[in-house]
Structure formats: structure tokens, C-alpha cells
Amino acid sequence: MIVVMKIGTPEAEVSRICEEFNTWKLTPEKIVGKHKVVVGLVGDTADLDPLQIQEISPWIEQVLRVEQPYKRASREFHHGEASEVVVPTPNGKIAIGEHHPVALVAGPCSVENEEMIIETARRVKAAGAHFLRGGAYKPRTSPYAFQGHGESALGLLAAARSASGLGIITEVMDTADLDKVSEVADVVQVGARNMQNFSLLKKVGAQDKPVLLKRGMCATIEEWLMAAEYILAAGNPNVILCERGIRTFDRQYARNTLDLSVVPVLRTLTHLPIMIDPSHGTGRAEYVPAMSLAAIAAGADALMIEVHPNPAKALSDGPQSLTPERFDSLVQEMAVIGKAVSRWPQPAVVLA
Ligand code: PEP
Ligand code: MN
After folding, report:
1. By the 8 A CB rule, do 185 and 140 touch?
2. Closest ligand to residue 141's CA
3. 18 and 135 co-located in one domain
4. Residue 309, domain CATH
5. Residue 77 in contact with residue 71, Cβ under 8 Å?
6. pLDDT of 256-292, one tens digit each?
7. Atom of ligand 1 nearest to the CA of 193
């Protein structure tokens, strides 16, 4: 249920009605928009009559029922407006969302050693990336495949952060590792395979770092938004959704089907920022540039691209990784599309 307050409602009145809702055993959440304040009501609202709510204050403009099973993730819950996730990094705050330039995340699938992670960090930073990605804990289909260096790789990510100033995005697979991961990560990633690991979702929702929630490989959009709802309901408002391709019936050419239609679909359903990962989405480096450009044209808020200094020797996901040179030229191609859709930072005007 959404309670829309009239423009100019005194703060004390909003607090009073929130207290009233508490006595009804509901959880009110005040959301301040550009023009109005709305109070989102979560709890057992099925039997509530909107007219009964309307009566508790003359300052209530409208009471709306949220029909979707996800509430906090719904667009209505945020005044119908997009929200932003602002991430403090050593290079300053990076805002991710519909009203900001496209944010770029780049780096290897896994952190392999100090030299490669620092070199990759410096090179993707020079090309224009805002975040370095790299897995310390890797979810691998085979138990015999490289599993990531774990805790020692977290130390290497911290070193790469200091060396480059980039924010760090890395995956947590196990609740037992969350404290260590969130100490180093500026954004904690929940991978596709853990999208419905509800105990992990509750834990990442109860810590402060923003969360990148990848779409499960067979997840519907509603299941994905319900997973986001777990994180939001646990108290963490900073969730970014990441489309990384869904299971395809034709694996001969592409690893997954990158579902770019989620961009306009999610825009209507949720206020949360949207990231696209064309690397896992296609599984092939040669397809990554086209899908990166398409993602920007479709309106994505951020891109995650795997980059490795020597893809042929990568310990994981080499075939889908770009070289730093290719990433650099891709950023220039992305700038053309980004500017066309007004999602690219304009160069500062230099006065003669
Ligand atoms: C990754 O980002 O390296 C990864 C394992 O992604 P996903 O969970 O989308 O497969
Ligand atoms: Mn990978």
C-alpha cells in the first residue's frame, strides 16, 4: 500500500501517521521524492480499506494498492521515479541510475595474481572504467575447476583499489565470508547461482555495502525482483540488478541469451538501477562489443565487462574476456552511443 501525501505536508504530520501505522502492526517507510512524500506500507495490508487509511489525515492525497508481490522494489514505492545507488570510491562518489551517465565495471573473471589484477586495474581505469571487478570466490560448475584464491585474492583487490582508485566489485558465495568480502568490496556481488539463496540475501541485506544482484540463469523477472525484495526488506536500500544472460536452448553459438528486453521492462516495474553483463551474456569476446553498445542504446545504467591482460591464459572465462586494448577501443565506441542517448559525461568546456 502506498500513501501519497499532499505537497507541503508538515513533517510532524508524516511522523504522526507513521506512528499510527505502527500501532496497526504495519511497517511504514517514508520515501521523500522530488515533489512529494509517500509512505510505503509493508505488512498484512490485504484486508485494509484505502478509505479507512484516507481518514487518518486530511494531508493524505491518495492511497494506492501495490498489486505486485514485490513492494519495496516496485516503481510505485519510489514515487514512480528511478532511484540511484551512490557508491563512494577512492576516486569519488559514483552514482548509478537512470539519471546518471553509464557506469563501467571491468576486470577479470578471477583475481589470479597481484601483477595481473593491478595491471588490469590500471588499464581499465585509463580506458574509463569506474569499478574493477574480479572474483576471489568463484562459483564453478566443476569442483575440479579453479575455485578462486579466496581470502588472499581479497588482499590483492584491496591493493588494486589503492593502486588505481577504482571501486571494487567482487562476489560473495557464502555467508561465512561476507564480513571479509564487504571489508574490501565497494559493491558486493551476489552471483546468478545464488540469486535465490535466501539466507545469503538476508545477510547482504543486513550489511551496509551496496549489492549487485545478478539474475539467476533461469529466473523470471518476478523471481529476480522478489530476490531484490529480500535485500531491501532486510534494510539495505542499495540494490543494483544485473542481467547476465538466461539459459539458452542453442548453446552452439552463445553461452546464454542476453535478455536486453529487461531494460525497458524493468524500467516500468522497478526503480532499481540496471546493469548489463554482455560477457557472461554471450560467452564470446567477439560478441561483447555489439551487445555492450546495444545495452547502452536500450538504456542500461551500467555495464560489466570481463577484461584480462592475456585472455588465452585466463584461469576462468578467457573466451569471453576482452584484452585491455579492445576494452579501450570499445569505450570509445560506447561513448558515441552514450552521447546519443545523453548518458555519457560531457567533456568539460575548456575556455581559451
Ligand atoms: C561472474 O561475474 O564472474 C560470475 C560468475 O557471474 P554469474 O554469476 O553471472 O555467472
Ligand atoms: Mn566470469
Report:
1. no
2. 1
3. no
4. 3.20.20.70
5. yes
6. 999 999 999 999 999 999 999 999 999 999 999 999 9
7. 8
